[in-house]
Design a protein that fits this description.
By secondary structure, the chain is mostly beta strands. It has one domain. The protein is 15% helix and 37% strand. The strands form two sheets. The chain has a two-stranded antiparallel ribbon. Strands 3-4 form a two-stranded antiparallel ribbon.
């Protein structure tokens, strides 16, 4: 996430999305990953594609609200 923010600040390139990760033991990145989800640039929001695990960011897309 730091690299995406640095590009945004230093080069003016805002990220389309950032992948958030929830670990089984909160705050412990050494623990197993429980869920990932895209954080989308406003006004878009994460929308489930309809297939695959809802715990995997790969099964979501960023879309305009209501679409």
């Amino acid at each position: 996430m730091n690299a995406a923010i640095e590009r945004w600040v230093e080069q003016g390139t805002a990220p389309e999305q950032i992948i958030a990760t929830k670990h089984k033991i909160n705050g412990n990145p050494a623990s197993a990953v429980e869920r990932t989800r895209p954080l989308c640039a406003w006004p878009a929001e994460a929308r489930y594609n309809g297939t695959g695990s809802t715990d995997d960011a790969a099964n979501f897309r960023c879309a305009a609200s209501g679409k």
